[in-house]
Amino acid sequence: MPEIKQVQVTFDCAEPERLARFWCEVLGYVVPPPPDGFATWDAYRDAQPPQERDAWSACVDPSGAGPRLYFQRVPEGKAAKNRVHLDVRVAPGLSGPERLAALEAECARLVPLGAVHVRTLYDGEDACIPMLDIEGNEFCLD
């Protein structure tokens, strides 16, 4: 079986740049440099036909370990629950009240950025916090 070299996660969205910047804040990712031949992203945008401007954006893990996230503008809005979502691993290895506290602290950091706290799931040992990003895509703090 061939080895998989890279994985990219793609989001359909209304505002690619805004959503990319949100996920940069959530994950500590960065916006990559503009395409070859362009000194800035503004120069790249200005070179595109009007209908293609701001059609996509991306963010990357600065360490190179995590997948690239790609955001593409689509005309339709989100209509149903995601079939795939991201789990943001905030508290691996933690359990009980310590795990819950770590998840709640991250939730409190993300809400002012525009994330929506859906609910907190906690059974006394394990915890998870389902949330929505700024365009309504589900993700979980895990």
Describe this structure as you would to a colleague.
This protein is an alpha/beta fold. Helix content is 24%, strand content 23%. The strands form 2 sheets. Strands 4, 5, 6, 7 and 8 form a 5-stranded mixed β-sheet that branches. A 3-stranded mixed β-sheet has the order 1-3-2, covered by helices on one side. The protein starts with 7 loop residues before the first strand and ends with a strand. The model has no long low-confidence stretch (mean pLDDT 93).
Structure summarized in a few sentences:
By secondary structure, the chain is an alpha/beta fold. It is built from 3 helices and 8 strands, in the order E-H-H-E-E-E-H-E-E-E-E. About 25% of the residues lie in helices and about 25% in strands.
Q: Helices, strands, pairings?
A:
Layout: E1 8-13, H1 16-27, H2 41-47, E2 56-59, E3 68-73, E4 86-88, H3 96-110, E5 116-117, E6 121-122, E7 127-132, E8 138-141
Parallel strand pairs: 1-3, 4-8
Antiparallel strand pairs: 2-3, 5-7, 6-7, 7-8
